[in-house]
Amino acid sequence: EAQTFAPLAEGSGRRWVLEVDGVCVLGRAADGRCEGIEVKTAVLYPYYRPSERYLLAEACEASSFLPLAAGLLRAAGVRQQDELIGVSDGALWIERLFESVGVTAQVIDVYHATDYLEEVMAALGWDEAQRTGERRRWCRGEVNAAAWLEAHLPEPERWLAWPAEALVALRYLAARQERMAYCDYRA
């Protein structure tokens, strides 16, 4: 069941949003090559004051990023009774980080969700105009992934013949559908 974010009870703490991602950037050139480096980032802000941001970025392994993220929470003044909403692309290392710092609800960012959605819609035979319109609906928060999958997914014997990329995308959406209740979140 999708998490909705009703107002917190009086005296129960504050609600925060923690957005975490990793991005590959070019490193220093050596011997005519330039290897990529993954920079992990975290942005933390109070739910009702998103302009009050605490930022963290570090080129490190996931295991080294966890104590830095915990330090970011301490520096911002997050307390044990506060609620943390995690926003990410659903990567396993981020899910582990969220679990370690006490995130109570996770949301898949709509950018990554619609990237996978594009593969599924193409496999369904939707033309570019249909796909563009549907991506916009997701971005506007008009869609819950679970309802969308129920309404648009064909019988398994049909989608099992899809290209590998479409099957990976379908599995991604299906496994995380409860974290893509954008219509509910918007409400």
Order of secondary-structure elements: EEEHEHEHHHHHH
Largest sheet: number of strands, sense, barrel closure: 5 strands, mixed
Major sheet strand order: 3-2-1-4-5
Instruction: Give me the secondary-structure category.
Output: alpha/beta
| Strand-residue proportion | 15-25%
Query: Uncertain runs with pLDDT below 50, 5 residues or more?
Result: none
Counting DSSP E segments of at least 2 residues, the number of strands comes to 5
What sort of overall outline do the alpha carbons produce when their principal axes are compared?
Answer: globular
Q: What's the rounded overall pLDDT mean?
A: 90
- Helix percent reads 40-55%
Figure out the total of helices.
8
User: Radius of gyration in whole Å, from Cα?
Assistant: 19 Å
Distance between the termini: 15 Å
Description of the molecule:
The chain is of the alpha/beta class. It is built from eight helices and five strands; from the N terminus they run βββαβαβαααααα. It has a five-stranded mixed beta sheet. Helix 1 runs parallel beside helix 2, helix 3 packs antiparallel against helix 4 and helix 3 packs across helix 7. The longest helix is centred in the middle third of the chain and has 15 residues. The chain is globular and about 50 Å long.
